[in-house]
Structure formats: structure tokens, C-alpha cells
Amino acid sequence: MSTSFTTNDEYQFDAFEDGSSKLVGEQQLTKLNQFAVDYAQQIWKIEEALDESINESSDFNVDPVSLYIRPYEQQDIIELIKTEHKIFNKVMLVFASLCNQVRIVKETAELRFYQPLIVFGEITGEASEGDVQEEVARLLPFMIDLSALVNRCYSIARNFVSQLASIYQSSPTTYTKFFKNTHLQTVFYSMADLFAVLITLDQIIVNNQALDSAWGRYQRMVKSVRAEPGKYGVAEEEKLWQLEKLLLSLKGQLLEGYIFQTCVQQEFDFPGVVDVRQNKPLKAEFVHNLKAIFGMLQAKMMDPSELYLRERFPGMMGLYTFYVSIFKDITDKSFFKQIWELIKKVPMISIYNNVFWYPADFIFKLMPGMMKIIGTVDVVGIRREYLKVVDREFAGRVKSYYLQVSRWMVRMESSNLNRGTTFWDANLSRIGQIIQGVLLSYHISHLFKTMIGLHMNLTAPLKPSDVRRLFQCAEMLKAIQGTFHRRSSMISAHISLMTQHLTTIINNKLDIVRNRYTGKSSYSDTELDVIMALTLTSDLLCGVATPERILIMKLCLNVIYQANYLKDQDIEDLRLHIKRLEFISDIHNQIRKVCDCSLLFWARDLFPTYLQFIYENPNQASSIQYALTGMKDVVSILEKAIHVEDPNKLIELYRIELEDLMEKFIIQPLGKDIETDLRLRIHSFLNVAEKDPFKSGIKEFGKFLELKPLRFFDKTIDIKARIAHYLDSTFYNLNTVALFDWKTYSEMRNMAFYKYGLNLLEVHLPGATLEQGLDVLEIMRNIHIFVARYNYNLNNQIFIQRSSNSKTLNTINITHVANSIRTHGAGIMDTTVNFAFQFLKQKFSIFSEFLFDDQIKSRLYKNLKYFRENKEKLDNMYPFDLAVEFEKDIRQLGLTEAGLSFLDQFRILITHIGNAMGYIRLVRSGGQQYCSNAIRFVPDLKKIPNFEELIKMHPLSAETMESSKNLDNVIQNLASNVSDGTEYFKLLVDVFSTALRSVNNQHLNNFYAIVPPLTINYIDHIINAKDKLFKKSKAIGAESLQFTDDGFAIGLAYILKLLDQNKQFDSLHWFERIQKKYEDDQRNILAESQARGMKEDQNQLSVKKVRSLQTEFELFKYSFSGARIFFKGD
């Protein structure tokens, strides 16, 4: 199907191109480009809001879903150890079970017992009498369980020794034959872990002095109750004896710091069954393994690849103490000296949060005789020297760690890290990255805890810069943890691959030993043990890497090592890969432990110093989130508190404490400084001295406002929203006090938006007037005060207060009057006129007395006589000089204390009369506005329906009929008021004109002659008032600060109408005289300046003064002419 297009010549475009099409196209392209940019920004904001950022601290506690990837063993150990060698099975089963028991005990102690003990003494408020006893009562079942745990540890220790003594002994047995050359180092590591648990419990309890004190008070309470059981309502006295005995037993076992010492001093020899103290092979095995463990600690404890070795040092020292206690052997002095040298390098170790272990104190307490080997030593001095070294290297190490962590985080976030390598190499590299992150965390955590622990122990002060670096360590730890958390899905997905890769490497290493036994027809007992161990290890590697399987594998490797087919490097590699496998299988728990910052809870006194530093350096504001996350780590410990009724109260108090610190050191000063900055910028025209940025620095407060809402426990802290609320509240409160500053605060809100991105609320306060204003009733009752304190503006029909003690002036306008009439009813209008009548009556009495005075009357007659006699010479215009002379003559009659002449007072009197007339006009206008607003819902005022007649057409109730009558009356009244209205001015003219024009008031006939000097007096008054207003001088009285006073013009027009002297005044041609006079003055000034050869700008001041007088006279003429219109209709 074809389509044809036809063109019409009638609609041909002009061939001329003026460039408009190009301009329109460019404009459309610009709009399209801007649309694309805006759209891209919106997409970026959405992506940023939904995605996690590399520099954002994560809180895994608030995640709705988390991955738990720690493998769980579903088979018992007895089912895992199944070989054809029964003796091998039995030995492996015994030691694997004991080592597994130690692992369980250690985990139980960490998860259940350490935490309640460490937080005992933390209170939820002010402690009262009896609270401590209640805390101990709540803790008592826990202490009984702790005693059971300790007894279990004692039993495991005895079992360990008994089993080892059965294997390593002089008399040959079935077991000694098989394990003659085997060093079960794994067993000794487990024993060290067991002793470490006991040492940690001792240290926690001894450090918590509140526990010992509270326990003593509880014991005294029990004694008091036992002494007088009837007083306390206790019937079973026998139970009190049992309770007291239990308390003494628990105190002796647990609270005196002898938990570990009791373990090593218990009896291990059982004659005829187990020989320990005289067992030389066992002693030799202890020495061998003890030195092996120490050798590893000595070689790697200060190495960059060290991981969890320091935590083994207390266990090793416990094992050494156990060895000395059992075998009473202190002959190896060189070994003890090596230990002491290591203690000098590592004088303190953090064993659990705020619990620090000091090996030198441990030796002084449990092996004081060993100190004779090294002589007298200054332990405190050693620690101080170590602290000096740590302090000196602290800044450099933190900086180095910061760079390493940054590089590691970037590599962890990268998805194309190992491009070009094989799959297994990339997998091994990923394992290395994960372990590197944990290594960094471990070393940072060690440095962090060492700094705090040593300064707390030695009561050494911390420099503010070091406080910042301490929190920087916490920030790095939380950043690493956050990175692991963000990459948890990747890590979880690769766990199986990593485990498979490591098991493959381990099997490959073990193939070296397997190949040595391939093809043999017979095996010795030792070789048989090795083959069984190889077989069992291979079977275990085929399954999941659970803690039980890894433990059994370690025991098997101890057996395999006796074959001596593996080189030292191969053995070291095997240990490394087993350690990696163990680490990978429990990765999340390892990361949580190594990145824990709970110590900050006991060092929270440093938090204000940190916040002050951050506030002084806003460019580091982004680190606050990491610091808050670190401060929150202790919550998991506080939740385990037993001594309080509700652990959540402890957490809430801690949260409130931190939030108050944030409020005090960040939010409050930030709000005040931003407010000050806004004020300085808005008031820059005041030439406020600027700060020197090189001396005071430049604070970028916007960095705080750019922060996303900070996650803080179970809520968020939105710094931007809080600052906006502070500014909103401050601006509103200050603006309500000073309404005249509304524009300033509006500009400050705009500046806050453009500079800081703060969307502040409009205060919606009135800019100048209040809607209700003064009430008409109050004005009516005090009209004599009102006309004296307010000035009238004719054109705007508004009254403005003359003066005020504050910076605000009250105003009265039509709306205010209409509101009052709506409140009180339209009848108030007539009452207002009646009050005004009484007021005018008093004023006209004073008015008459003034003109009746001979001094005034004679001068007016004299001036009029002169004007009439010289009318033609004066061109029918009243002479200006005559009016000025009259004013001077009146001034000579005397002045008041305020410096006012009689003519000034007469002018003020006329002004008050005019203000009263202006108020009546205002009331009438307000009444009309009220009536028009009230009747605006009537469609047509000319066709108003009669509701009473309409109701009669339908038989309705009497109440409805009465309501219709009332409605008709109201509408009729409003309609008449709107259409007709009352001419109040005409009434007031009629009521006074007859009396003032009577024969008795003939002295008022010459009033029009005083109008010229009155106008001159008025012009001088208003110019003087405006000049003082512009100068804004504080020394000038507020009474003179006026810019409008049209009451004089209305009063003058009203009186001329009353006296019927408008024609006589017009015959003076006074305003024409004024116009001519000032024009002549300007010409004379210019002519004089030209005659003297002066430049035009040299007479500007004189010309300006004349023009100012001329302008004011013209303004008065307009006001006076307008006022006369009100009184023309007769």
C-alpha cells in the first residue's frame, strides 16, 4: 500500500532563516541534558540508599536474617574414632574426649560465666539500703553453678594427669609400648586452655572489688538474721546455718583468688593406681611439651603473623606452675630466665575485656621462690618502660595499621582481584585475605587493649591525640568487621571451597608419609600407630571440619610426627593449614571476638575527649558511626547481667549516657556554631571582624550534616534533623520576642538551606500586626489616652503607636475594628460615637478658651487688619512673614517644661480632635467591613426572600417560625447597614456647629487667621520628627520619632467646617503663598550663587532644605484637601 503526500502552496514557509529554529533546538537539547543529569542523580541517590557503602559501619545485630555457618557435629567422638587398632582407638578416644571437655568448658565459661561476673556492680540508678543484698541473692544460684564448673575443671585436670601418667611411665604397659615416642602436644595445649580458664576466673573475681564487698555485706546480713530469726519472720533456722555455710564455702573457693592455685595443689598421686610425682617419663614429657609450647610463643609472639598466641601465655604459665607444683623442679634456671625475658617484652595481656593479666604478679603470687633466680626486679618500672615504648610507637603503628586496613578493605571489596590466576590460586588468595583481615584486627585489638590497660594500671595520663588514635583503632576494628559483614555472603559461598582446598593440601602433605609405608608386608608397633593415624585423618578430612574432627586430627598428627618422615617445614605447613581450617570453620565467631570493642565501656571517660576532637576536626565526622558501633559492643555483655532485675535498664542507662554526651559535645555546640555562623553572614554589613583562618582554622560544619542518621542501639541519631529542630525552635522563640526581626530570621533560614542544606520550617508569625489588635471597648473607654498616644494615617486608615518601650509598635486598622465588632456586636459603633462626642465636647471647651485669650485674639485681629488693608499689594495672598512673626510672638509668651509653646499645644489639641474624628471614620469602615463579610452569603441584596412568609406556606413548628423571624430581622439589619450606613461626621458637625457659630462664640470668628502659623508649626514639627527618626539616635526621645500625623489635617478641616470658615480660609490663598515663597527662595539661592561664582553643588544643602519644606507643605496640602472632602456634603 502506497501513501502519497500532497503539498499546498498556500502554506509554504518563508525561505529566510533567522536562526530561531537553531536556538529552540539548542534550548531543547539543554533541557534534555538537564533532565538526564537530574535523573542520573535520582537513580544514584536511590542506589546509595539501598546499597551498602564501603565506608559505612554495619550493625549485624539489626539484620533480619543472618548466616550461621559454624559446622555442627552430629556424631559422637566414639563414632568418629573407628580404626582396626583397639588400643589406638582407646587412647585417642580418652584424650579426644578430655580435650573436647576442655573446649566445652572454655566456651561455657566465656558465654555464661565471664560476663555476669565482669558487670557485677553496675547499677541501674542510685543504690539504696538492701539493694546490694538483693544483687547477691540474685547472683547466688549463679555462684553455685560457677562452683560446679570449677569442680568440673578440677576433675578434668586430675583425669588429664592420670591418663598421661598411665601412658608415660617407667614400667612397660600396653599403652607405653604404643606411645613411647609420641608427644601429645595437643593434650598439653588443652591443659593450658583449662588452666587459662581458671586463671581468668581468678583475675575477673579479684578485679571486681564490688563483688567481694557485696558478698561480705550479704554474709553479715545472714548472720544478723540467724541471730534474731523471729525478728525477720524466719522459722527454719537450720536453713540459715546451711546458707551461711554455703556462703563461706563459696567465698573460700571462688572469691579469694585461689581457684587456679587450688587446682594445681590438689592431690594427683593415687598409690598403687597412678604415680605422678615420681614419674620421670611423665616429667620428661611435661618438660618437652612445656618447652615446645614456650618455644613457639617465644618465636612468634612478637611476629607480624602472630594470632591468638598471647592468649595462650597465661595457660602456658599455668602449665609451668602446675609442673613446678607437681614435680618440685626448679633446677632449670635458664628456662625460667627465658620466661622472664619474655615477660619483660610482654608485661601485660588482656585476657577478657577489661581484665588484664600480669605474668610478673602471677609469679610473685604462686612461685615466689623462682624470683630468687633473677634477683630483685622493679616490676612497675618494667611496665613503665614498656608503656613508654608503646606510647612512643603508638602514633606510627596506628598510621601504619590505618593504611593496611584501607588497602585490605579495598581488596576485599574488589571482585576482580585475581584475574589471570587459576581457580585454586584465587581461592587460596581469598583465604589469605580473610586471614590477613583477622590478623590486622588481632594486632590492632592488642595495641588498643594494651594502651588502655597499661594506662589504667599505672594511672598514667593519656594525651588527647592518643585518645583520638585509640578510637581510631576501634574504628578500624569495626570497619574490618563491617567489611566481613558486607562480604559475608561471598565468604559463606566460598567456605566449602576453602575447606575443600585446605583438606586437599593437608592430604597431599600426608601422602609423603603414606608413600613410605606403601608396599610393606609387616609393620612395627610405632608404624602401625602411624598408619592408623593416617587412616583416621583421611576419614576425618572427608567430612565437615567440625571442632571435634579437627581436635582428633591434631591428636593423629601428634602420632604421625613420630615417624620423622616429614621435614620441619612440612610439619609447620601442616600446622598452619590445620590452623587455617579450624579458623575458616568458625570464621564469624573469630571475627566477632577479635573485633570486639567492649573495653570502651570501662574506658568511656575517654569518649568526651574523642567527641571534642571530632568536633574540632569536622572532616573526620564520618568516624562517629564506627565509634558508636564500638561503644555498643558491650551490650551483649550487659544483657547477661544477673545481679539486676532487668538488664535492659543497664543498657538504657548506658544509651542515655552516650546520647547525652553526643548532645553535649556534638549537637549542642554544632547548633550554636551554625546559628552564630548564620548570624555573622546575615549581619556582615555590620563589619564584624573576620576570623583569621590560619589561626583559628576553618570548620566545615556541613560534614556533620552530611552524615546519614547514626545507628545507635535501637534508635538513630539524625544530626541534621536535630540541628534543624534546634534552629527552628531558636528562631521561633527569638522571633516571638522580637517580631520586628522576622525578615532577619527568614534570611537566616534561606542561608541555612543554601549553605548547609537545612530545610527549616516557616514560623508563620505575623510580620507586623496581630489580627485581633486592641479591643474597641478599651479604646472607647480610654479615648483621651488613645488619641494622645497614636498617630493617624489618612490614606491607609490606620493608627500607629507614637512610642513604645520595646522595638515594636502597635497598630490599629480596619480589620482589628471589624474583629471587635464581630465580637461585641454592631451596637458598639453608636456607643463609640457617644464617647467621642463627650471627648470632643471637652476639647472644644479648651479650644474656645485658647482663642478667647486676649494675647491670641488681639494678634489675630491685628494680622487680619493688615492683610485686608494690603490685600492688593500682597496679591491676595496671606504673607508668610506675618505667619512666622505670629508664631515667634506666641513662643515669647512662654514654654512648658517639654519646650512646647502655646501654639504647639494648640496644634496638639487640634490633632487630638482630628484623631478622634479619624477613629470614628475607622469604626464606621470596620462596621461596613463586618456587615459585608456577614452578609456575603446573601446572593442579591435587592431580592431578599422573606423566610417568615416561606415558613407560613408550610406547617412547621413554632420554634422554626420564631427562628425565621429572627433570621429576617438579622438579614434586614445587615442589609440596611450595608446599603445606608450612618453618617457620623455629619452628625458631629450638626451637633457642634450651632453652638460654635452662636453669638456667644464670636471670638472664634477669626480662627482661620491662625491656620497659617499653625501649618508652619506643624511642618517644623513633622520635619524635626522625621529627621530624628532617620538618625536613629538613642538619645532622642521616643515621642519625637514619628513619620505620619494626619490627625492635624482632619482636625483642621473639621473645625473650619464647624465654624463655616472654609471660604474665609480659601481667601487667604495660603497654599499659593507657600508655593510662590519656596520657588522664589530657590531662585534667589541659585542667583546668589551665580553672582558669587559658586558652583551648583556648593548650594545643594540650602536647596535641599527648601525643597524639603516645600515637599512637606505639599503633602500636608494633599492631606488637608482630602480631609475637607469628608465635610463637604451638606
UniProtKB/TrEMBL annotation:
A GO-annotated cellular component: WASH complex
Top-level taxonomy: Eukaryota, Amoebozoa, Evosea, Eumycetozoa, Dictyostelia
GO aspect biological process, one term: exocytosis
Residue ranges constituting the WASH complex subunit 4 N-terminal domain according to the UniProt record: 33-598
Protein name, per record: WASH complex subunit 7
PANTHER family: WASH COMPLEX SUBUNIT 4 (PTHR31409)
WASH complex subunit 7 central domain sequence ranges: 600-942
InterPro entries for this protein: WASH-4_N, WASH-7_C, WASH-7_central, WASH7
Pfam families in the record: WASH-4_N, WASH-7_C, WASH-7_mid
Organism: Cavenderia fasciculata (Slime mold)
Domain WASH complex subunit 7 C-terminal span(s) in chain numbering: 960-1128
